[in-house]
Write a structure and sequence with these properties.
Chain lengths: 507, 146, 425
Amino acid sequence: MLFKPISQNFNDFVIDRDKERCINCEVCVRQCSYEAHFWDDARQCVMHDNTKCVGCHRCEALCPTGCLTIKKNPADFRDNALWTPTYMKHIYKQGDTGGILLSGMGSPSAKPIYWDNLQLDASQVTNPSIDPLREPMELRTYLGSKPDKVEVEETPEGPRLKTKIGPQIKLEYPMMFSAMSFGSINFNLHKAMAMAATELGIVYNTGEGGLHPTLYKYGANTIVQVASGRFGVHKDYLNAGAAIEIKVGQGAKPGIGGHLPGEKIDEEVSKTRMVPVGSDAISPAPHHDIYSIEDLLQLIYALKEATEYRVPVSVKIAAVHNAPAIASGIVRAGADIVVLDGFRGGTGAAPTMIRDNVGIPVELALAQVDNRLRDEGIRNWASLVVAGGTRCSADVIKAIALGADAVYIATSALVAVGCTLCGRCYTGKCPWGIATNEARLKKRQNPEIAAKRLTNLVKAWGHEIQEMLGGMGLNSIESLRGNRDKLRGIGLNEVELDILGVKHAGR
Amino acid sequence: MRRVYPNKDFCIGCHICELACLTAHSESKDLIIAVREEQASGLRPCKAVYEKGPVCVSLSCRHCENPTCVTACISGALYKDEETGKTKYDESKCVGCWSCLMACPFGAIRRNPSKGKIIKCDLCEGRDMPACVQACPNAALSYEDR
Amino acid sequence: MTYVIVGNGVASVGAIEGIRKLDKEGRIIVVSEENTPTYGRPLISYFLAGKIGLDRMSLRPDDYYEKNNIELKLGSRVTALDPGKKTITLASGESLGYDKLLLATGGIPFMPPIKGLEGSGIYNFTTLAHAETLIQLSQAIRKVVVIGGGLIGLKAAEGLFDNGLSVTIVELAPRVLSAAFDDVAGKLVSNRLENEGLHIRCGNTVEEVLRGDNGDVVGVRLTNGDVLECEAVVVAIGVVPSLCPAKEAGLNIRRGIKVDDYLQTSAADVYAAGDAAEAYDMIMDDARVTPIWPNAYSQGYYAGMNMTEKKKEKHPGGLAMNAIAFYGMATASLGLVNPAPEDGCDVFTYVDEERQAYRKLVFRNDKLIGYVLVGDIDFAGLYTGFVRFQLPLTDEVKQDLKDGQPSALLWPEHDFETRWTPECE
């Protein structure tokens, strides 16, 4: 505790150990990967070092006598509305290290969350509500390019679709597990996502880390990602999935690339990513072969050629100022799906300044992109997916009403398997066994359990979405898409309402 | 028969199974009392967690089909229950000769140092699910008929 | 099918259980010289020491014979066997026919040729009856000499001492427990016993039992000329196979009744198990008499199964093992513990004088083939696993064993998957 830089003693958390209940069983000692708990040989009991606590609550969750409580450090700096402890601690840290600040998970900053300012409608008397327990309620949706018109021909067996429809991803729920690379999270969770997606009839995204050979069998429920580092990309990989996603940008760190520290690159990650064990895997900020929409078009068609036009190609961008124009270009370049990733989206590691200060709320980007594509008459050319900070089924249904076809979830999936958003993913020491490839830590995620929890989460949200749809008198999720009349804003100004394309509550 | 099977791929080495076992076999059925008081008077868990590098596994009596401990038992304290298939232990008959402890090639028998008798898994007699299996936070123990 | 089992020790119980596992119907007749149902023979030392009463001697529940449908002929000595006619004759003259016969006749105390050994005041310690006699005896006398510093001798001495007698143990070898232990372990045990107040004379033996005018024992004279005063002598050197009626019937005999891997003797339909049998030993890779409890049971069990003809199972081979405690000092020894130099073994020893702990491991060809533990015996079983399954050891694993840290995770992966956690058994 003593004899270390003074600033390190301004710790965020304190460990409260109820000595009445502590039995010195050392469960906390074994669980804490940051060594905040330790066996004190001199005192012959378990002790702790508050300065090492990251506030992950793993010890608290597993303490068999419930003697631990992790609390915010009550030590207060003098009140100052401008110089909050967060900023002061940033500066102390940088004074110590001279480096850029790193953070894990999405931005915790207190910026508007528009989902919370949107209210859903419900039927009363007219257009009566539907009870999903008694009547069919369709959550199935398809992602991919839809034709401008369809032609049907009569045959002796009945009517038949004459128009050839491009490749689609079939989703039984309007949700997908978002890109988290194998390496940033470990194999057990990749397997869990694959198992859950298969069970649910949805898809998960590999992220930029390739696909482990043992997971190819889940290909029908997998989106394979191609990003600027091209890690793990080869012909079999491209052909393994139900779709390919070109990742141009990430909501948590728009404009910059990725950096998987060498510590997280073990034998399996190395083989899958096709990089040496222990070497940092750096994804460049731009794709070095994409400097224009035309370049993007070439990559899209190169991937379509490689997969013989069997699977849709998606392009993911961070929600930034010009999102509508960029999205229009992407659709015109041949993308079948456009993904907008908001600034609250998670990450394994991002420079704190970028995470908290770059990009725009995905709600606004979504509404504007949807408008733009409609205005241009090309909305049907591509499906629209939003990602970044979807916390509950209401967020999902609001996104769909704003114009999304489906939603990517990642942080909520991690929370379902234990993540407490301590935000230290980049250390590779995740005590919950999520963002780590350390052998003794990663096994904390049993894929069977994790898959079950992920399945439960999506099913639960599915039930809630059905209830809310029924309440609005709708019996299919596709009837809600872009139906902004089902939304009303509260506490929003005229500009915000205008951008969102919703009326204020009461109107 | 149903046995407790360990899964070393997902054992996280927390030792909670041992604590659950201790509590289940304590007088008080209270973990804190079991550890602080009853352990001092000889109570021990039937389970043991072994660790080697990052690998760990929680083991206890396998309730073998042909248990060597029963062959080695000189007092008739250990016997095979014909109906359930369990390898049972009658503490009142044990004389603490430690023959079984030596004979069991799985090292699944321990000593109660105070009583001078052995300690061995009874699959939590009277419970539907052994306490260790129930307590394991990572499903690294299963109770099943394979 | 009629099974006749001669003897009612643990080999006999093993046989009953082996037979009944496969044959619930067959007639089983157990003939025993002793008058009691099967008891835990090693328990006689606990009984002698007053640690347990008669009520705790029985090895199986009271309804055991009834439940297993066994005809019990207690107090009946077998005098003859005719393998041709497949009959045995009892001392009463009664003749019993069998389809399958098991000779589980056990061992009889070895009586060395010592002058003055015939006559009163000389006792053994292998049966419950012996123990009862010694308890009565200890009311009447003060000093006793025990000949034999092996397991039986020491346990007899301990029991007599607990009954208030002054006890001297006389052992021919330079240390106690010469067969199962080595010098260091023997020394730790003899120190323990001497600290309690027992007397031990090693490297010596009784040359003559001295008797008074009335023929009563008054002392013994040792080979070095020392005379020890005593009122009784307990001869507890060990047991030799009881060969009646096998010998007379012409069965193949070396030290014990020779049996094959299936426990069958040289005569058709006649099997042998336990202290009377000379069977394959897995470590010695040779046939020998290993008069220990677990071997007797498992030989009986395999003999029983094979006698039903419903299964033909090779016995995995005997494994010498002894676990025994002296006044709280636990010891365990298993397999080959005193290899000869020509055996080419790698022997590791570790002594902790302060904690009175000792560990000896005997390796051969990168396998563990024996061990001695004194004091810290909690890991004995884990060491046993390495011996019993002859698990191959890497240098790293060997080191862990030497460091006193055996673990199931040191097993080769395949053995762990197939033996420890098999999909089914």
